[in-house]
Design a protein that fits this description.
Layout lengths: L1 H6 L2 H12 L7 E7 L4 E9 L3 E3 L4 E3 L4 E2 L4 E3 L4 E3 L4 E2 L4 E2 L2 E2 L1 H7 L13 E2 L2 E3 L4 E2 L4 E2 L3 E3 L4 E2 L4 E2 L7 E5 L2 E6 H5 L6 H6 L12
């Protein structure tokens, strides 16, 4: 019954009330996210009530995304989170870093227009990828679709589709495509797998 109400036009009102309520309550998942860049309401996206977002106007979140509690997203130089991405709690995504610049310029950092060593760059997380709890993603990183980033990973470089990613600094340790193969005979998987070209039923 509650699901039917949320999926009706009343869902927009419910999401608005949840967003207001989140200011005063312990963490909970807020259903619905307005993507200001696309000017579209992502009804099936769920974002923790206590997530911290910097430069929200530069955050491009698609639908069916789940962002866990106590997470930080710095979208100052654009962060794109594609459809179906899920994260654990306490994840951080950064699109800039001033640590080198502050060390190099010292007390002149705020006065100088030339910020030597300043790092900035967009981040993209591909469709149906998963980011494990306490993982950190740094600027200029592109994560392909269907990837799995294991908990506690420190991601400083880009990875192709279907990568299993782990470590500090993170490296590719395997393939989610190989992991998923054992499920490919299931009809529900054949109908819903995010890249049907990889199912390759005949080869099996």
């Amino acid at each position: 019954m509650l699901k039917k109400i949320y999926l009706s036009p009343l869902g927009y009102l419910i999401s608005f009330i949840q967003n207001i309520f989140s200011i005063f309550h312990t963490p909970f998942m807020v259903y619905g996210f307005y993507n200001s860049g696309q000017k579209k309401f992502m009804k099936y996206t769920r974002v923790s009530s206590n997530i911290k977002i910097m430069s929200k106007k530069n955050l491009d979140i698609y639908d069916n995304v789940w962002i866990g509690h106590y997470s930080l997203i710095d979208a100052s130089n654009n962060v794109t989170i594609k459809e179906g991405v899920q994260t654990g709690s306490h994840i951080s995504i950064f699109s800039h870093s001033s640590h080198n610049s502050i060390r190099l310029l010292g007390k002149n950092y705020l006065k100088s227009d030339l910020r030597i060593g300043y790092v900035e760059g967009s981040v993209t997380i591909g469709e149906y990828s998963f980011i494990g709890s306490h993982s950190i993603i740094f600027p200029n990183v592109n994560i392909g679709k269907g990837c799995l980033i294991k908990a506690g990973s420190v991601v400083t470089s880009s990875f192709p589709d279907y990568s299993i990613i782990a470590g500090n600094p993170a490296i590719q340790t395997g393939s989610t495509y190989d992991y998923d193969k054992k499920y490919f005979d299931e009809v529900v998987v054949q109908n819903n797998y995010y890249d049907k070209k990889l199912l390759n039923i005949k080869e099996r």
